[in-house]
């Protein structure tokens, strides 16, 4: 029993009401007799929403098979990333780097297949982002740490690799919530950073440990920068003679040519950014 703060006109005594009378008057009235009591409130029944469909459009057998193939490529990238971690833990650093290169290939394949086969979906985009975080945000720093552990102080290598993981997470989260630009990336994509790190370990760049450490940190900050970087489709349309330069350079000194190509691409972002500001 609860006491209602309403006086009876004849007796002047406080009237009382039951729990149901205080909160509700009944279905036919739909209004309270008195002030509501929070701990006596009857919770509303909330129906659970039906799960969203993973594959938009028709659910034919052929489309389901194509959908499974595309997501199989994503899972393959995820599995290769974990394999790279296991190999790095056992000291097989170059083989781990080769697994990362295969991760990059499968990551590009799943998106291309999804568009080609007409099974692109929000689920696939989220799967791809999670696999990228595992393969490129976690596996790549682990492989780099294993390769740097004997050439630089261990705490410095750990800090640089944690920086790569943190910037990769920020980069992927920002990409998921930002409007897409068909011409440029905002910052260097995680896939490209992982590819550069993997190839660097694979070919064994003849650079001092501190220089390699600085390069790792620079790539990490490049991921979260606001500089515009050209997508592969725009790079393919460059004049043929520009493509001949790295090919000839690779025949002379592949390692030096690789470093020059990476540095040129990293510098292209600030150059494009400054040109946009001048024309704005």
From TrEMBL:
GO terms for cellular component: membrane. It holds the Pfam family CDP-OH_P_transf. The chain crosses the membrane at residues 67-89, 184-205, 211-230, 242-267. GO terms for biological process: phospholipid biosynthetic process. Keywords: Membrane, Transferase, Transmembrane, Transmembrane helix. It comes from the Bacteria. The keyword Repressor does not apply. GO terms for molecular function: phosphotransferase activity, for other substituted phosphate groups. The keyword Transmembrane applies. Belongs to the CDP-alcohol phosphatidyltransferase class-I family. This is CDP-diacylglycerol---serine O-phosphatidyltransferase.
């Amino acid at each position: 029993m609860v006491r209602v703060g309403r006086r009876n006109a004849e007796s002047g005594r406080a009237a009382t009401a039951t729990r149901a009378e205080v909160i509700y008057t009944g279905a036919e009235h739909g209004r309270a007799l008195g002030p509501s009591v929070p701990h006596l409130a009857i919770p509303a029944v909330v129906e659970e929403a039906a799960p969203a469909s993973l594959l938009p459009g028709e659910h034919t057998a052929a489309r389901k098979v194509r959908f499974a193939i595309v997501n199989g490529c994503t899972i393959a990238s995820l599995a290769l990333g974990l394999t790279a971690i296991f190999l790095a833990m056992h000291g097989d650093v170059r083989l781990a780097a080769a697994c990362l290169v295969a991760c990059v290939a499968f990551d590009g394949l799943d998106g291309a297949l999804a568009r080609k086969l007409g099974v692109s979906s929000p689920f696939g985009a989220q799967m791809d982002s999670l696999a990228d975080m595992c393969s490129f945000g976690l596996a790549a720093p682990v492989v780099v740490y294993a390769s740097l552990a004997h050439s630089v102080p261990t705490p410095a290598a750990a800090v640089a690799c944690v920086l790569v993981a943190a910037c990769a997470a920020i980069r992927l989260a920002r990409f998921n919530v930002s409007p897409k630009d068909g011409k440029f990336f905002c910052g260097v994509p995680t896939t490209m950073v992982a590819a550069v790190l993997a190839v660097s370990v694979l070919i064994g760049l003849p650079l001092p440990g501190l220089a390699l450490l600085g390069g790792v940190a620079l790539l990490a900050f490049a991921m979260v920068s606001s500089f515009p970087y050209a997508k592969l489709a725009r790079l393919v349309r460059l004049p043929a003679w520009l493509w001949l330069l790295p090919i000839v350079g690779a025949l002379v000194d592949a390692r030096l040519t690789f470093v020059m190509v990476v540095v040129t691409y990293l510098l292209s972002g600030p150059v494009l950014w400054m040109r946009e500001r001048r024309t704005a």
